[in-house]
Amino acid sequence: MVVRYEARDRIARITLDRPERGNAITAEMIGELAACVERADLDPEVHVLLLAGSGPGFCGGYDLVESAEGMGRAAEQAGDGGQGSVAPPAGSPIDPAVIAANHDPGRAWDPMVDYAMMGRNVRGFMSLFHCGKPVVCRVHGFCVAGGTDMALCSDLLVIASDAKIGYPPARVWGSPTTALWALRVGDQRAKRLLFTGDSLSGAEAAEWGLAIEAPEPEQLVERTEVLLERIARVPVNQLMMMKLLVNQSVYAQGLHAAGARHRLRRHHPPHARGIRLPAAGGRSGLPRGGARARRALRRSRPLELQGLSSAPGGGVQGSPRCCVGG
Amino acid sequence: MVVRYEARDRIARITLDRPERGNAITAEMIGELAACVERADLDPEVHVLLLAGSGPGFCGGYDLVESAEGMGRAAEQAGDGGQGSVAPPAGSPIDPAVIAANHDPGRAWDPMVDYAMMGRNVRGFMSLFHCGKPVVCRVHGFCVAGGTDMALCSDLLVIASDAKIGYPPARVWGSPTTALWALRVGDQRAKRLLFTGDSLSGAEAAEWGLAIEAPEPEQLVERTEVLLERIARVPVNQLMMMKLLVNQSVYAQGLHAAGARHRLRRHHPPHARGIRLPAAGGRSGLPRGGARARRALRRSRPLELQGLSSAPGGGVQGSPRCCVGG
Predict the structure, then answer these.
(1) Nearest chain A alpha carbon to B261
(2) Sheet of strand A135-139: strand arrangement
(3) Cα B23 from Cα A107, distance rounded (Å)
(4) Fewer CB within 10 Å, N- or C-terminus of chain A?
């Protein structure tokens, strides 16, 4: 279990719980998140959901180390005949060996394999958006890369004034798969962020309307609770109607068309982008295996972590210490 | 198991398998359908899916008898404290007792309870639309009411020339929840069908472009196999791109906005529509319990079955012998 669930007093609390990895996203986490959302949505006592993270920050994005280790294992299994793997289905787009092969710079890139895999992640994140009941996301510390998918799929964002939120992988790695930035901050500001990979502070996020509130860090929990309690007083069917009312204007702006079209090209072929994942058979030139793959991937840590502190006019200082991705 | 699954030679065959009830839809069937679709979608050997039905016809719509019995049981359980029910979650919008109470003409109608329940069914049907790979639907005999949700969420329809397809519940019961008719046949023809509840013959469905082919009944299986084999020869990533390419224009036409807005009002309050479901506590005036509820519901068999034979200019003769609904 990497996502904790608790429901009482009309509020369901869903907590990302991999603090040692900056709550970095894994397939397991996405599955548990979607299951917790559905549980809260079906619970007649629950009026509103809170999504938060344990440890030093909300979420540092996808766990590329775990991906690399998974791919390393898959490569090793492929070497001895591929035995030993049970689920996910062998040869499917969510099979680590398939993902690794598709990221091998020496081989052709199949955008549909990537789309099939990433589309399932998006479905998991979008469970927050499609949940009938309101979801408040509370961000402290950092919310970057894939972490922003969860924050933006939530209905309301309350963020500590000193937290960082942004999509640094915009610089090289790919693009946000839930395609919600333009809808949340408008085209100008979305382009300002996505053409640079710059992040916003919590205070800036509130100024831009991305967040509804940006309290001082020591006030974050209390201010979020005040909001949750205000919402929890409203009858749940009223809340559901209001969420649907507002989301319909988002649908009408073409969310699904934009998202589907976009995810097809969400990142460019790895052999063209200079960042190499360890791949099946070692053809990428990176060493095989878990520990070595991890070291190799740390050396090739994506640029966004270096860049978090370098943005004039919009950036913020500091970076999460975990290895994150798109 | 009410849905059978078989995959070989690049084709996954999904068969609705409640022939004794005209493959009438239950919550169990929808869940199994979605699971089979995902299984085929993830199987790297599968290029194309076939959806078909066993017995005398493809699908007669929702199983109102099973609903009524479920509600009867729920009412009895409510009478002795609601013990004994485990899943679905008690008090949730998919709890039969909640559905029954919401259909009690003596009580207020909560559209959000209905939306939450029906939205989950729609998600199940739409698994056919969202499946990355093509889905061919083969219809014989009849495809009416909720059965059309499955046929229209599929990519290609091959229908026997003498089969009936339509949405008879349009006359009184409610409206099609997947909201695909206008997208499939255009506004004029959709209104012609939905303002009357008239059905089309398979031959008419092909003339109107709703079906891609309408062979004579004895040719139906063979013609469908020819199409499946033609599709199965194409590389699976090509097929996925082509499906996405076409579906994007459907997204762009507002499918999700129309569907979500529509499902909120998908049927009018039961106390205003003259058809009464057996409800918790017997307040509807119908008797309690399974067998009696079934008899009562048969007496109040929805109008669409009578009407299937009455449409001048567009209708067809004959009707399935199962009890169907919206």
Answers:
(1) A248
(2) A3-8, A11-16, A48-53, A135-139, A156-159
(3) 46
(4) N
Residue A109 to chain B, least CA–CA distance (Å): 11
Buried b / exposed e across B191-226, counting CB within 10 Å, b at 16+? Answer: ebbbebbbbbbbbbbbebebbebbbeeeebeebbbe
Q: Is residue B326 part of a domain?
A: no
Inform me whether the C-beta atom of residue B58 falls under 8 Å from chain A C-beta atoms: no
Tell me, yes or no, whether B176 lies in a domain. Answer: yes
Please report the residues numbered 239 through 258 in chain B whose beta carbons come closer than 8 angstroms to any beta carbon of chain A. 240-241, 244, 247-248, 251-252, 254-257
0.80 exceeded by the pTM?
Answer: no
CA distances from A60 to A167, A175, A193, A317, B325 (A): 10, 15, 17, 15, 49
Query: DSSP strand E in A161-308: where?
Result: 164-166, 199-201
Q: Cα dist. B241→A90, A101, B238 in Å?
A: 22, 20, 5
User: Residue B211 sits in a domain of what CATH number?
Assistant: 3.90.226.10
ipTM confidence: 0.71
* Of residues A89, A132, A257, nearest to B116 (C-beta): A132
List pLDDT tens digits, range A42-61: 999 999 999 999 999 999 99
- Provide the residue range defining the domain that includes B240: 3-307
